[in-house]
Amino acid sequence: MVSLIRRGLTIGLAVLALVVTGRAVAQTDTLPSWNDGATKTAITAFVARVTKDGGPDFVPPAERIAVFDNDGTLWCEQPVYVQLAFGLDRVRAMAAAHPEWKQQQPFKAFLAGDKDALAAQGEKGLLTLVAAAHSGMTTDAYATSVADWLAQARHPRFHRPYNELVYQPMLELLAYLRANGFKTFIVSGGGVEFMRVWAAKAYGIPPEQVVGSYGATQFKIGADSRPVLMKLAKVEFIDDGPGKPSGINRFIGRRPILAFGNSDGDHQMLQWTAAGPGARFLGIVHHTDAAREYAYDRQSKIGKLDKALDEAAQRGWTVVDMAKDWKTVFAFERGGTGASQ
Amino acid sequence: MVSLIRRGLTIGLAVLALVVTGRAVAQTDTLPSWNDGATKTAITAFVARVTKDGGPDFVPPAERIAVFDNDGTLWCEQPVYVQLAFGLDRVRAMAAAHPEWKQQQPFKAFLAGDKDALAAQGEKGLLTLVAAAHSGMTTDAYATSVADWLAQARHPRFHRPYNELVYQPMLELLAYLRANGFKTFIVSGGGVEFMRVWAAKAYGIPPEQVVGSYGATQFKIGADSRPVLMKLAKVEFIDDGPGKPSGINRFIGRRPILAFGNSDGDHQMLQWTAAGPGARFLGIVHHTDAAREYAYDRQSKIGKLDKALDEAAQRGWTVVDMAKDWKTVFAFERGGTGASQ
After folding, report:
1. What is the tens place of the pLDDT at every residue in B236-251?
2. Residue among B207, B249, B253 minimizing CB distance to A210
3. A-chain residues within 8 Å CB-CB of B219?
4. Domain A33-79+160-340, second-level architecture
């Protein structure tokens, strides 16, 4: 009888161990595309600290604000920013309705494929082209143009829709943070209206939690008596570099406790987040993986990472080594699709 | 025996009736400071329509965006906007640190109490005074100055802290909407940083759901190597009148399904909200109660309500008659406090 009870107890303990082990595995598997190691541990340890009720670093849910850069942090920014690719394609599509562009720089050079003449227009020429694709229409018409473009455009290397080129480990991180009471925001140099078209579907981040650059808009009562917002050519705010803390202050109104970026354009956002009291997490995606994505940092024209990388080393910020820390980069590598998250 | 059973049944039914009645009362009591009538019914009928799963007007929770003007809609804006009272008090408090103001208009006239000289400076003079109270300091120092002022300033008529002059029926409406899955936002001509200091406590609306006017800020690394945001004197955006739809588009990124205002400064926000597809609720607080609050509309310098009142009549928007529709205006009328909501 005693032995039967003991056996029962043993079996019971074994079942209990299985259940406990099963649970433990399920818990660490909230970040399955992250390899085990110091980076993953830094993330989970931080979340454990700030969510431990009664602990010294506990942060109430309302103050668990997490901000993420977009280009190069949540999705691929090479060989050119996606919004730049959109802008140039849109100018081509709009050319038929703008016969005057044939005589007008930088449109003339661009439409004729004259690279030397376009280069002579400099960066300002490029900005003029992109601005044309982002103004002179209603906000609704603009959103439609972005959605239509995304549906047909393909990345030159991966031959997939751009919104499938989101980083699977970062999708898991966003979901993990939200499951732990964080409110996740995008804080990007990209256009706020460009991102909102697809951010909810791609990242689970609603329009009101997307912070970005923006131009002026003008309220008008249209010919059909319906009010519209017209997008003007005037850029009002660039949410990049030192602009990011201003954008965070303006849109969110409180200091994040977690910030993730990948370039010097995120440096001040990381500094601003780090300067608050209490526990903080500062993360940088370091592009070290030419095989699966791209490898670039200090010398890159797009996503240059130099000063922020130095400060990360000095201050012990978490630098994600893409090649080493990420088991998977894109969901499509394993047959899934990153766009349906 | 049968009579005993009958009596038992009767008592049982009576208890059941009590329970049922109690429940029914509890349900309609989500808006206890609103008198029964067409206005209250319009609100509850709209909420019932858009929350009825499977109904023709159902709106998913993520799209239940409700926007509220602040001054005159959620709290008292008479005899002057609260932020103006703050600005003028601040200039007085800052004067000792600015000896140059004694020789400089409009400060000289204001500090000397010279009303004629101040009037000669016009509206621009007033704006200059208020701008001085809102710039030349860090965002943290500014927030502290607002909190300190609110703690000691008193309304000239009601002799209470300004953040107790919030409308009890509107607090109930905000809570009722949130209980029905709405996300509530402030969209005000007031300064976004001014409102965020007290809006969470007063209305249960977190900083990231406050949209307002704002000035430029500049990121700087301070003398102690800590980053700060300096508030500059440059006004970047006025979130009023035709600016409100732009502010909604910029900060929220989707069209509200419910909007509440009280003046012509809210007219375009109401039009913009009304122009979306599906069920919409447009509300105007009409100040008709000189006894408990104030009575003003078409001729008022503050909170002028003229064109929006005409359009409300034409289009069947809901106009709240404060004297008739509100059982209570301020929580303190019944011995409570409005500031602890």
Report:
1. 999 999 999 999 999 9
2. B253
3. 242-243, 245-246, 268, 272
4. 3-Layer(aba) Sandwich (3.40)
